[in-house]
Design brief:
Number of strands: 0
Helix content: over 70%
Strand content: under 5%
Shape: rod-shaped
Structural class: mainly alpha
Length: 207
C-alpha cells in the first residue's frame, strides 16, 4: 500500500513537472519576444533621431529606454532560472527522499546485514541531498552576484549621464560668459570711439 502511495506521488510530481516545464518554455518565449520588440523599438527610435536637431540627446534617451527594458527582462530571466534551479533541486531531494523511504522499508524486513547495507545507502543519498542543497545555494548566490553587477552597471551609467549633462551645462555657461564679455568689449570700443570724435573735429582749422 505504501509503495502504491509513493508511486502515485511520483506520477503526480512528474505531471506537475511537465506542466511547469511548459510554463517555463512559454515564459522564455515571452521574454525573447519582448527583447526582440525592445530592439525593434530602439532601431525605430534611432532612425527617427537622425531626423531631429538634438541627435545625441535623442539617441541617449532611446538607449536609456532600451537599457531599462532589457535590464527588466534580464531580471525576469534570472528569476525564472533561479526558480527552475530550485525546482530541480527540490525534485532531486524528493527523489532521494523516495529512495530513502524504500530503503528503510527494505531494511525493516531484511536481516541485520541487509539493514547495514541499506544504512550505507541512506548515508550516500543524504550526502547527495546535501550536495544538491549546496548547488541550490551556489546558484542563488550566482544570481545575486549577477543582479549586483547589473545594479552597479546601471548606477555607473546614470552617473555618467549626470556627468555628461553637467559638462554640457558648464560648456553652455562658458560660451554665454564669453559672448557676454565680447559684447561688453564691443560696447566699450564704441563708447571710446564716440568720445574721440569731438576731440578729432576740434583739431581742424576754423574756416
Amino acid at each position: 500500500m505504501k509503495r502504491l502511495f509513493l508511486l502515485s506521488l511520483a506520477l503526480a510530481a512528474a505531471a506537475h513537472a511537465q506542466d511547469e516545464d511548459a510554463s517555463v518554455a512559454a515564459e522564455r518565449a515571452r521574454l525573447k519576444q519582448q527583447r526582440e520588440k525592445a530592439e525593434a523599438t530602439y532601431k525605430a527610435d534611432e532612425k527617427a533621431c537622425y531626423g531631429k536637431f538634438a541627435v545625441n540627446d535623442c539617441l541617449a534617451a532611446a538607449k536609456a529606454r532600451r537599457r531599462e527594458v532589457v535590464s527588466d527582462l534580464r531580471r525576469q530571466e534570472i528569476a525564472l532560472n533561479d526558480a527552475l534551479r530550485k525546482r530541480k533541486a527540490a525534485e532531486r531531494r524528493s527523489e532521494i527522499d523516495e529512495k530513502n523511504a524504500q530503503q528503510r522499508e527494505r531494511a525493516a524486513s531484511a536481516p541485520e546485514r541487509a539493514a547495514s547495507q541499506a544504512d550505507r545507502g541512506l548515508r550516500s543519498n543524504e550526502r547527495a541531498a546535501a550536495k544538491a542543497s549546496q548547488a541550490d545555494g551556489s546558484a542563488a548566490k550566482a544570481a545575486q552576484r549577477e543582479r549586483d553587477i547589473q545594479q552597479r552597471s546601471a548606477e555607473q551609467a546614470a552617473a555618467k549621464q549626470r556627468r555628461d549633462a553637467e559638462a554640457a551645462k558648464n560648456a553652455k555657461e562658458h560660451a554665454r560668459r564669453v559672448a557676454d564679455a565680447k559684447e561688453r568689449e564691443e560696447k566699450l570700443r564704441k563708447r571710446q570711439a564716440e568720445r574721440k570724435k569731438p576731440a578729432a573735429s576740434s583739431l581742424k582749422d576754423p574756416a
